[in-house]
Amino acid sequence: MYRAPGTLPSRPAERSETGSPYLRSFVFRDSASITAPRGRYRVIAEHGLEYERVTREVELAEGAQSSIKLTLRPWIRMYKRGWWSGDMHVHRPMEDTPMLLEAEDLNLGIVFTMWNRQNLWGDRALPNDWIRKTGPDRWMTVTNGEDERGGGAWMLHGLSNALGFDKVLRDGERSTESWDPPGIEFVRRARAGKRALFPWFDLEKPIWWEAPVMMALERPDSMGLLNNHYNQYAMYDGEAWGRKRDTARFAGLHGYSDYSLHLMYRYWNLGWMVPPSAGAASGVLPNPVGYNRMYVKLNGEFTVEKWYEGAKAGRVMVSNGPLVFFEPKLQQRGGRLRGRIEAISGDELERVEIVANGKVIQRWNPPGKQFRANLDLNVAQYSWVAARAYAKNDATVRLGHTGPFQLTGIWDRREDARYFREWIEELQQNPKTPPGTRAAELYSQALQVYREMENDKLLP
Questions:
Q1: Is the model's pTM score more than 0.90?
Q2: What's the CA gap between 221 and 205, in Å, rounded?
């Protein structure tokens, strides 16, 4: 790997390129020069999800100069359809983020400046200008904090004051071994000063041990469907310190993804239509900013506030490759769903699916990169429906997914409630949160919520 002097590394130096066929990359504007010995080289250029990737072979002779002009062309422009992109999980320096957003053609980056032992603001008050314009149609926000410890990872956007979770860990204590105080206390403290939509609570991924506790007692504003286990050249296959999956049921390349989706669908089955979110965790995991991105449909010009309002309203699509446009229309009589579905991808599509209450009710295996179909489905027995599309890839999962569209059917939620009731009963055996602790009290409260739902099949 040869990096041009004065350019910005696309990943921190200490982070490896998991599964990557090449070693690292760098970001520059307009042009860059590299000095290298003679030989044959491969030049690869990218400009975010919506642009075609360009690969060029070049032969460099001894003492010679070679000039290469690369033109990157978009295969779609989402903003022209009213969709604006964001990455909900960025761990890159604030000073680097404007160029990274531009390089990845991303409209919004949520930059975390408070995270466990880190608080970049020190003892200062958090800045009022927490929304910062970085270029034409590009913004970042900077007063965002993440509490990532034993129970899970809880991300709060647009904080007006530091909550102090950077001071929780004792000297020498590993973050994954810390369960006290429970993360829900920071969420409640943040929400006590809520102004309109902020702070916004994004539950980073559904596999965390205390995720069903949060869902029952302090429901998030969004939850990470395309989370940082989806990497550009590999899947992070394990559940880290979260609740392990059944690897016999959820196996192979799609095992983690199917498990994570399975949990998301169960929450939607309970009637909790939390919008899906997406984040790459660039700076922690080997993803460029915006690799997992979240699109929100807006009417008119972009503002950060309007973007979050659209997310709250459910006008959301997440993607790290294929894009899926879903326009369902529920007929007043007969429980039929009509409308249109479109999937488009920079790579070959593998399959396009309609999912209702976690079940695939329609599937296509289209050739090529584009697909359109009209819908006419009986959905009388379902309470929600969504669309998803997969692109062909042998190394990772490339997925596009819409948010849920609520239906009028009554879903028997008792089995889903039982699933999370058993989860919390298992959580109650955690030696880090014995009886008498604040966490144990919260588990009992959450358990009661699921028990009541388990005894009543009707949606609230």
A1: yes
A2: 13
Give the type of residue at 299. N
The DSSP secondary structure of 253-271, one letter per residue, reads TTHHHHHHHHHHHHHHHTT
Instruction: Tell me which fold the domain 321-411 belongs to.
Output: Immunoglobulin-like (2.60.40)
Using 50 as the pLDDT threshold, list the residues of the chain that sit under it: 460
Tally: H helices and E strands in the chain: 7, 23
Per-position DSSP letters for 140-177, written without gaps between them: EEEEEEEEEETTEEEEEES-SS--SGGG-SPTT--GGG
Structural tokens at position 40: 């044959």
Convert the pLDDT of each residue in 74-125 to its tens digit.
999 999 999 999 999 999 999 999 999 999 999 999 999 999 999 999 989 9
In which residue are the tokens 């302090």 written? 218
The residues of the chain that CATH labels 2.60.40.10 are 321-411
Spatial CB neighbours of 59, under 8 Å, sequence gap ≥ 6: 39, 40, 41, 66
Nearest Cα to Cα of residue 378 among 425, 337, 433, 430: 337
